[in-house]
Amino acid sequence: MAVVEKERQKLVARIKRIRGQVDTIERSLTTGDDCADVLMLLANVRGGINSLMAEVLEDHIRHHLLSNERSSAPPHELAEDMIDLVRAYLK
Fold it and tell me: Do the beta carbons of residue 15 and residue 52 sit within 8 Å?
């Protein structure tokens, strides 16, 4: 990843929050919390993961697919690469 150190620290902090949320889900399941509460926790984790995925995917597109050495590629080739990337990671 081509992120600067400040951005890397933000991403690590985000994944640590997600880890804490997953730990909360585990506790909720072991203590028999209400299904609706567990579902809300799961939705929160999914949102966090999706947001993190979008951030890393955006970084990849900006720094790898649209880099100077790739900028000479035909636009349709870059578009196909982006489509393939999105399909691979957002299934």
Answer: yes
